């Protein structure tokens, strides 16, 4: 087991190093921007995985927290000097707000059974969206507003590295979180809530903690997203954002953390290439339909997602290898 | 002998169905009290009501003299009751070790002692320490479930149909385990298998249509063919 874990960590380390080196060996601005976008959505998808994959909570309101992060960064940098200090403060402010909102939303909604909970999160998310549309003095409604990013982020490479750093930090934090005793309780909750309660755990507490952690991380993704566009409007709080996070998690592999990163990569790349093909052939103007087909195929053929599929394949190959060893052993014993 | 658990005229509804319609039951300290009855009589609901999973609508449940019928499940568990459900309730994606660790309330020497005790009692758990709970056999799952309830220093263990779906040879091991656990804890057992119940039980309570109909020493029931035929369909 320890060997397998160190193998995992080794692979993660190599990938992280490759991603750090990547922008220094390529001059492609498109790739730098695309990968930055992938990192940001990977952070969002990982936060969603904490809810869906580790705690078994299906939320349709996750965009709320992404939006809180995006708006706090946008409003901060528009209202004050666009310096690095204010950028950091805006992230901190977004995280605190997301923590407070997710705490109260969790307390109010997590007592409910899964489908009622999902519907209530959808309603609350809608409430936040309407508030963002109507509070025009602050948010400029649907039109949104532009703002200046700190000088240092004029260089896309710096922002690429910051987004990658945030992704790695979020991954390490979430990995440690789900491997801790707290993480074990969350997995128990996902598997059997009443049984977890019978072991003496106040399940609502644990669900609220997961909800707050996921909200805070989603807010970080929202702040980075706002900086990447230098623009915020109500689209950051729409259902589309939640659906993106959900699909990235499902396609990548639920309950794996690495899966949502892969899912974000696959979906962002597919979106980029399929929309690009529209310029060459009009049939690809309806690329969203092809995207739908891709989702359906992925769910049918990879029900455990990409990460789950790779894991199954690895176990299958290992099983065959073990089988060979066993048969060899038997032969040795016979001879 | 002092009563550790006492239920008085307990009524429980599941949805609109009136399942328990007046259950009276006592479990004395240091004994194995067996709840018996036909399928659907209300035995499992009685255990779930004690644990607060299906809260009692009316009546009193006293544990160590204190009422627990209004408490939430986690508080009931923390007051010293361990529950081994019918489906064993193993967390299938967690390893045996993690299933045990999740049940640990502290890192004290007493907990370490109890873990050592259950690992000696159920050596298979030691053997499959790193194996996922979902990959264990039915008997091993049963043992893990009992071990998990025991290491929480439960003064009263509620065990629901531990013999269900197990091979006779495994049932023998479960009987031995219950005899061992009895030395450390009081046990309330729900069991459909009368042979097993008669081997481990000190007292019995017969439940029929959600009501307590008889209670007494296990020896009395073993001798009473008519009662067995009427309420258990055997004899």
TrEMBL record, chain A:
UniProt xrefs under Pfam families: BPD_transp_2
Chief location: membrane
Coiled coil regions in record: none
Topology class, membrane: Multi-pass membrane protein
Source domain of life: Bacteria
Any one GO cellular component localisation term in the record: plasma membrane
InterPro entries (UniProt xref): ABC_transp_permease (IPR001851), LivM-like (IPR043428)
Keywords: Cell membrane, Membrane, Transmembrane, Transmembrane helix
Keyword Transmembrane helix in record: yes
GO molecular function, one term: branched-chain amino acid transmembrane transporter activity
Subcellular location: Cell membrane
Protein name: Leucine/isoleucine/valine transporter permease subunit
Lineage: Bacteria, Bacillati, Bacillota, Bacilli, Bacillales
Automatic annotation (TrEMBL), chain B:
UniProt-listed Pfam families: ABC_tran
A GO term, aspect molecular function: ATP hydrolysis activity
Coiled-coil residues: none
SMART domains per UniProt: AAA (SM00382)
One GO-annotated biological process of the protein: L-amino acid transport
Alphabetically ordered keywords of this record: Amino-acid transport, ATP-binding, Nucleotide-binding, Transport
Every ABC transporter domain range: 5-234
Family that this chain belongs to: Belongs to the ABC transporter superfamily.
Name this protein carries in UniProt: Branched-chain amino acid ABC transporter ATP-binding protein
Phylogenetic lineage: Bacteria, Bacillati, Bacillota, Bacilli, Bacillales
